[in-house]
Design a protein that fits this description.
The protein contains 9 helices and 14 strands. It is of the alpha+beta class and about 500 residues long. Helix 4 runs parallel beside helix 5, helix 5 runs antiparallel to helix 6 and helix 6 packs parallel to helix 9.
């Protein structure tokens, strides 16, 4: 549920729940007081009659105040009036200026003056109920002047009967209940809504603090499917991406250190040899023409090794930085491999290795490839195979197979093979299956790594299978061109 919908429902609940509960409490109060209501109903007619009598009596008091106002100071008149008022549960208060000069015994001990209206001299009755001494009274007021000119007011206060008392209690009960319900409902709903918002925000804050401290090894707990849940999901994706980036950066840094270490080693070996032979010439060790020629030939070979290593490093660097341009074009891979095999056959015979191309194509197999880079893949794999052949009657077989979307090229040798646990690493930079870096096989350890980068740039895959003592097969794929659309399959 979204936060917007949650807030709307909370607002509606704050309006509806108090009303429903208040109505329920009012009905419950009435139900509990049903017996009293029946008794009140029977007294209703009598109460109305008393109110009528009080109105008639107050009319007489007003006439007396207007015609003979000083009578309202006469104790005998007031005593007779009190007897009539007692019968109708009423009392009077006579005030001169702001001082009460007479109050019925009904109000003994009560500060009646504090509840009386000011002198208004408009001769109108005030029917507003007034709460005095724990009881409700209906107040009637009449302003006049005594004969001495002093301002005066007479008040008739009639006690509210059972109906009024019940109504008053009902109003008070409903008012208090409504207030408590609003406070309670608002408190609960505010707590629930705020908790559903504040709690995940606090978790996000803690997660942000962890990231700030460099700690990315944690996972955000799942939240409700709302705006904050979406934010938490985006935050978790960001954390995961940051963690991956940091791990990748650390891996790059480790690879860089390893690369520098390996390059230093591979460069130092031929340079040390070159220095040694040059020193031998300078010191006169090569004292014959035959030794001199051998020393110079060795220096030349080591210099060529250095040049080849630098070329390989340069090529790998450009591939790694994706700065090596590719000239992709349509190639019939069957014809290309046939020509490539024939071209390499002469060099292989000098090494005592036979190379054969096996194909079952029933026609052209067009692919999109860079001729030069494709030749380097095949050359690197074959040279690597010859380098580790280490047996007589070496043989390399090239197989071409195809399916609907790709062609697969397998280059298989009958060499010494690679231990199964080492196969996943042979395409790594500077990796050699031969643990000895001073092996007579030499090499830069970049051939298969470069081949992998080139295959990936072609949108293909490269992998290896090997059996120790029997040989190794290197496979790589290229995308075919769909004959119906003349576009490469993806």
């Amino acid at each position: 549920m979204s936060i917007k919908l949650r807030l709307i429902l909370s607002y509606l609940a704050m309006l509806i729940v108090p009303i429903i509960l208040t109505i329920g409490i009012a009905l419950g109060f009435i139900q509990a007081s049903i017996g009293s209501i029946r008794n009140i109903a029977t007294l209703g007619e009598t109460e109305n009659n008393l109110i009528m009598e009080g109105s008639k009596l107050f009319t007489d008091i007003k006439l007396t105040a207007d015609k003979n106002p000083d009578q309202l100071k006469d104790a005998k008149y007031l005593s007779g009036l009190e007897q009539k008022l007692t019968l109708i549960n009423s009392g009077i208060v006579v005030r001169e200026n702001n001082r009460v000069i007479h109050a019925s015994k009904l109000f003994d001990g009560q500060n009646v003056a504090a509840h009386l209206s000011k002198f208004r001299y408009h001769h109108e009755e005030n029917q507003d109920p007034e709460f005095i001494g724990g009881r409700l009274y209906l107040t009637k007021q009449h302003d006049f002047h005594f004969t001495n000119g002093q301002r005066a007011t007479v008040f008739l206060l009639t006690g509210v009967g059972p109906i009024g008392q019940f109504a008053y209690k009902l109003i008070i009960t409903i008012g208090v209940a409504f207030l408590l319900i609003i406070v309670f409902t608002n408190g609960i709903l505010t707590y629930m809504v705020s908790r559903s918002i504040v709690k995940p925000l606090r978790s996000l804050k803690k997660a942000a603090e962890k990231i700030k401290e460099g700690n990315l090894n944690f996972a955000m707990e799942p939240y409700a499917k709302d705006e904050i849940g979406e934010l938490a999901g985006a935050f978790e994706a960001m954390r995961f991406q940051l963690k991956s980036s940091v791990e990748q950066q650390m891996q790059y840094e480790n690879n860089r250190k390893e690369l520098i270490s390996t390059i230093s080693h591979d460069l130092k070996t031929p340079i040390t040899a070159i220095k040694g032979y040059v020193e031998g010439i300078m010191d006169g060790v090569a004292d014959t023409q035959e030794k001199m020629e051998r020393y110079i030939k060795t220096i030349y070979v080591k210099a060529n090794d250095l040049d080849e290593l630098i070329d390989q490093l340069f090529l790998f660097s450009k591939l790694d930085l994706k700065k090596l341009p590719f000239n992709f074009e349509e190639i019939d891979i069957d014809s290309y491999l046939t020509d490539c095999t024939e071209e390499m056959q002469f060099d292989m015979e000098r090494s005592g290795v036979c190379i054969d191309f096996h194909h079952k194509a029933q026609g052209p197999l067009p692919v999109i490839a860079d001729r030069e880079k494709l030749k380097r893949i095949i050359t690197n794999v074959i040279e690597n195979a010859v380098k580790y052949m280490n047996r007589e009657n070496g043989k390399i077989d090239i197989y071409l197979t195809a399916d609907e979307h790709t062609v697969t090229i397998e280059i298989k040798d009958n060499g010494q093979g690679i231990p199964e646990k080492l196969i996943p690493f042979i395409f790594d930079t500077f990796y050699r299956a031969d643990a000895s870096r001073n092996s007579s096989t030499g090499g830069s350890g970049l051939g298969l790594a470069i081949s992998k980068r080139i295959v990936e740039e072609h949108g293909g895959q490269i992998w290896a299978k090997s059996v120790e003592g029997k040989g190794t097969s290197i496979f790589f794929t290229l995308r075919r061109i769909n004959p119906t659309t003349d576009e490469p399959d993806v």
